[in-house]
Amino acid sequence: xxxxxxxxxxxxxxxxxxxxxxxxxxxxxxxxxxxxxxxxxxxxxxxxxxxxxxxxxxxxxxxxxxxxxxxxxxxxxxxxxxxxxxxxxxxxxxxxxxxxxxxxxxxxxxxxxxxxxxxxxxxxxxxxxxxxxxxxxxxxxxxxxxxxxxxxxxxxxxxxxxxxxxxxxxxxxxxxxxxxxxxxxxxxxxxxxxxxxxxxxxxxxxxxxxxxxxxxxxxxxxxxxxxxxxxxxxxxxxxxxxxxxxxxxxxxxxxxxxxxxxxxxxxxxxxxxxxxxxxxxxxxxxxxxxxxxxxxxxxxxxxxxxxxxxxxxxxxxxxxxxxxxxxxxxxxxxxxxxxxxxxxxxxxxxxxxxxxxxxxxxxxxxxxxxxxxxxxxxxxxxxxxxxxxxxxxxxxxxxxxxxxxxxxxxxxx
Length: 413
Hints:
Blueprint: H1 9-14, E1 18-23, H2 33-41, E2 44-47, H3 49-54, E3 62-65, H4 73-78, E4 85-90, H5 98-103, E5 111-114, H6 119-127, E6 135-138, E7 156-160, H7 166-176, E8 183-188, E9 196-201, E10 214-219, H8 249-259, E11 266-270, H9 276-283, E12 289-294, H10 297-309, E13 316-319, E14 334-337, H11 341-349, E15 357-362, H12 365-378, E16 381-385, E17 388-393, E18 396-401, E19 405-411
Parallel strand pairs: 1-4, 1-5, 2-3, 2-4, 6-7, 11-12, 11-14, 12-13, 14-15
Antiparallel strand pairs: 7-10, 8-9, 8-10, 15-19, 16-19, 17-18
């Protein structure tokens, strides 16, 4: 009896029990012969009600609408493992689509995906916008605040929305933050018979009867005082809501450099205050995650507001005092302690991943003495940071020094 090598192309084909077929508003007419065959040959076809209706002429097996809530979808597909199963998806299944969800649980060698043009591709084709130079953001079932970091003068944005109400809400967000003159284009039901494209500006948005299937294209124009989130670390303190408990911008820029964020990493910001360090950590790359630990409820609420205002609503806020309860959190790749180092330092140091970075800022002599002692035993880097700003001295101007900060940076080996 011949044996098939489990990693050979032949065995991969034999194991592909699951097909994922992208379908657009133009329905089965635009599908390739391969895609049509995968739908027709499947014993079970999963999809949204709209997708199943579009493909109904090809479906010979059982049609299964997605469950509600959608969280159970991957498990329902996995329960049919080994049978010919087809999943219908919108456009490209791996552009904010169901393909990504399934790939977390199913080996890609067991799948055969046949994508159709994504909504972003169709929108870019209608507008003549080069996709590599265009920000692509999904607001489908996600916070509108995610668009905020992309609001840069001259930037082109394609935003996939949730429903007919989302464009108006997005226009209001832009108008409220100084981008009301931005070109605002709503592209509806792309690729189908109901396709429609209408243009206005964010500040004059008055479109009605918008199709639930829509993409919003924005050409950003910043007005005077627009809330533009700079791309470099060390954002102005005045952009944050705070009560004085904030790592000042120059110190914050150096702190982010010392934390050295790398793609996909998790930060613990202990004694987060306004959340400024955690927020700028997350702004450095969309893959970065952060947990802000803050004992005061009023400050924790302020952190949440700041996170939304800076377009990183995924910042997790934990109310409590370190180190209690930290053991239940995901293990961090980096830790910043801006307050409460005396009680938390040794405990949190042990919680870091190997290769993780710990950065502690001290302004009091007591905390500085603690850092000096740990530096003497554990090594790392010790830096004194002093900032002096020009300020009024009577009718003239002089230099006014801020409190110096002692920073200890240590990497776990």
